[in-house]
Amino acid sequence: MRILIGLISWFALTAAGYQEVPYLQDRVHAGELPPIAERLPEAPAVETFVEKEFGPGQYGGTLDILMAKAKDVRQMVVYGYARLVGYDRKLELHPDILARYDEKEGRIFTLHLRPGHRWSDGAPFTTEAFRYWWEDMANNDDLSPSGPPIQMLVDGKPPVVEYLNDYTIRYTWDAPNPAFLPALAGARPMHIYAPSHYLKRFHERYQDPEKLAAMVEESRRRNWASLHNRYDNMYKNDNPDLPLLQPWVNTTEAPAQRFAFKRNPFYHRVDQEGRQLPYINEVIMSLAASQLIPAKAGSGESDLQARYLKFANISFLKQNEELYNFRTLLWRTGKGSHFTLYPNLNHEDPVWREVLRDARFRRALSLAVNRHEINQVIFYGFALEAGNTVLPESPLYKAERDLRWTDFDLPYANRLLDEMGLEWGGDGVRRLPDGRPLEIIIETGGESTEETDVLQLIQRTWLKAGIKLYVKPLQRDVLRNRVFAGQTQMAIWSGLENGLATSLMSPKELAPTTQQQLQWPQWGQYRETKGQAGEPIDMEKPQRLYELYHQWRDARNREERERIWVEMLDIWTNQVYTIGLVAGVLQPVVASGRLQNLPEEGFYNWDPGAHFGVYRPDRFWLK
Amino acid sequence: MLIYCARRIMVMIPTLVAISILVFIIIQLPPGDYLTTYIAELQAQGEQVAQGKIEFLRKQYGLDKPYWEQYLLWFGGMLTGDFGYSFEYDLPVSEVVGDRLYLTFLLSFSTILFTWAVAFPIGIYSATHQYSWGDHGLTFLGFLGLATPNFLLALVLLYIGKVYFGTSIGGLMDPKYLQEPMSWGKFLSILEHLWVPVIVIGTSGTAAMIRRLRANLLDELQKQYVVTARAKGLPRIKVLTKYPLRMALNPFIADIGNLLPQVVSGAAIVSLVLSLPTTGPMLVEALRSQDMYLAGSFLMFLAVLTVAGVLLSDLALAALDPRIRLGAGSEH
């Protein structure tokens, strides 16, 4: 249906012709830019506004935003969200820069570019860009000493790449590569193309050696690769000369306090009336200290702000809304859980390890947490009282499964602990099997006082189950190293990175796959290093999770992937490997009263979501 | 005089070498290096970094070499005017500091002028009217300034500026003038923003300055030559300015050694709170992210200024006060 609408509007457009962008009119008249019809691809991507609350806007204006560091210029690549394929609001993948793509058996991907599509400097965007990246960057020993990105490898093997013509390219792997498309759609996308016409001047293979040596010398770099790296990063966005495909391109060289992003005259999207997007001509990013950003946003100095705003700022922001004409929207965050306890199944003490590995113990701990109280006291009742799993917005969510073991039920918790044979001591604290008191030290990264507040509330209810809780704030790196070494009993951190998962996204967070998983760091490290470090998985259920994850990678269709996801979530939530406390904490989003086409309710997530990216800021406009 | 200067400069060299070693050690003391900080930051946002890429970066930045080699590379570079490379900005250190320096100078000199303009009259008044209501009242005000936490005062003044005068919060100029060449409008905008940091940083210095001037002046005013001058009928102002005030100024000149580095580092915490485009926040940020060459070169620059400042103030003192003789102690 979508395609049909797209086709109809496309025919309507070619008949009607495109309208010149007023902002660029002077440059077109002066002959600096070709007219609109020549700047757009032959078949541009047409925005049809499927959401009924949105509609075509008007040109003009400047969007002011605030950031804390010069490095944050990369956020404009995140917000711009021009991707080969991108997520929509329902987290379905659609071609965007690509005209279309074909996927066969999950392992053969044919990408079709838009003929006539151009880089922001006007040079044609063809398969040469893909060839340059694959042959001269990803597979160049100097530029990529560790080889191509892992998403391009299946079992360590690269794809066969065929350049069928200027606009068609095919990647063929031996086995399915489910990581490929999500990597292209990421908030930090895998850029599998690069502006070769610009970058060749820095490349050993194309530049005269003497000239290159002089350039390296002049920039005081170690070698040509480091010079190339300095100028080739399309995500970092720190080189104003680097051509891009994003709706706005950086025009300011760092170091600076204010960065101006101007519209890309060759952007590939138009609205249904034939006007080239974006509607907003310029985005001005000013830098300010991160602690000052809430105050500045709350006094109308930002037209669109979420980064560096926190839950605690909401009342201040709300208060100033009318005075400075802005709205404070409250969006759900997309992490699986805001705070989660991680019992360390690889703890070095054998007695503790046995206790922590007992599912009954973890369930009892979860049942002895009064999530409602935490929500009311710390989050004013705005958070979700749930475990660390997918969020209700995810198509995989099922309340009866994902809310298991999250009620506040002290009698049940005590029954489970009694069943385990953890005897009460005289002081109201239970005893471990070897007679030591059951005292759990929860270590924090010391990032916020919220963590300690939450833990103090838990302390009271856990004591009623005979468990004594101590809090020990540490420095982030120290905490991680202690967890990895098995010295930490339990850590508190945020939960699953992706609480909005669909079955097409990797379930690797549910299985032991990396050392960063604080509940089983050793197992994760073992898998990550292919058995060189860490310990092999020696528990049945986590082993099963790992096998399921592998099955998911090899799955050839959606149904199979969905079945695997469901089974993994079932094990994950029933075994309570991590004890989620609250989820979906609200993220304040400050939007100018003039800003249109931004939803009142949304989710704020890094990947998938790219923060504002899925809402397509190129459609935003100022009244 | 020349021999004295030469000897002092010779002593400066080992001092600076010792400082450079200390600076380098202290920067390396926290666990990890720039890359671990950088990776932690990426992970906090949900980005993943491949292990191979980290090793590659570590090599590229030269962080895989032993510490002594990194140190020699840095120190050797500085001797030839190469201050190293800032990881955070991906630019040579000398380019990063750039135009922040002149705004820092502007801010610091305005602050010093403000402090002197306030402290001088009050100090003189307090000394000449010791234990009067005026003395107590003004001293109280000075102490109030000293006792108020700087950052709190800064936030209050920012709020007042925004609500009553519509001045944009933080920074040293309206955002629209950033990256613009100097103009009348830009200059006015800087003045409009300058008063908050000047008052905030100035107030804390004023009290100390008032007390010092008052104490020194009181000492002098009790001396016999003042009594004699008065007895001979010299006008009060002349008695005050001819000798006692000049003597009381010695500590100010001796202070130049401390002043010089302050002019450059410029009240880092206040600048951070106010988000000023000065060098202070840059130094703090560099230390936080373990951007070691930027931080190191910066600290070395401050050390050089301190050492040079002390020498300058010694020379100035000798020139201004005939009672002080250079190198008197070492000749016996």
Q: Could you characterize the architecture of this molecule?
A:
The complex is a heterodimer of chains A (623) and B (332). In chain A, strand 16 (439-444), helix 17 and strand 17 form a beta-alpha-beta unit. The mean pLDDT of chain A is 90. In chain A, the strands form seven sheets. A five-stranded mixed beta sheet of chain A has the order 17-16-18-15-19, with helices on both faces. Chain A has a four-stranded mixed beta sheet with strand order 2-12-10-9. Chain A has 623 residues and is an alpha+beta fold. Chain A has 21 helices and 23 strands. The longest helix of chain A has 18 residues, at 558-575. In chain A, helix 13 runs antiparallel to helix 16 and helix 20 runs antiparallel to helix 21 (558-575). In chain B, a hairpin with a 4-residue loop joins strand 1 (85-86) and strand 2 (91-92). In chain B, helix 1 packs antiparallel against helix 17 (292-320) and helix 6 runs parallel beside helix 9. By secondary structure, chain B is mostly helical. Chain B has helices at residues 2-28, 34-44, 51-60, 67-79, 93-97, 100-128, 133-147, 150-165, 184-221, 224-231, 236-242, 244-248, 250-254, 256-265, 268-274, 279-288, 292-320, and strands spanning 85-86, 91-92. The mean pLDDT of chain B is 80.
Assess the beta-strand content of chain A as a share of residues: 15-25%
Order of H and E elements of chain B: HHHHEEHHHHHHHHHHHHH
What percent of the residues of chain A sit in helical stretches (DSSP H or I)?
A: 25-40%
- Summing up helix and strand content along with how strands pair, one would put the structural category of chain B as mainly alpha
Head-to-tail CA distance between termini of chain A: 31 Å
Strand order of the largest sheet of chain A: 17-16-18-15-19
Assembly state (oligomeric): heterodimer
Class computed from helices, strands and strand pairing of chain A: alpha+beta
Q: For the largest interface in this structure, which chains are involved and how many residues does each contribute?
A: A-B, 44 and 42 residues
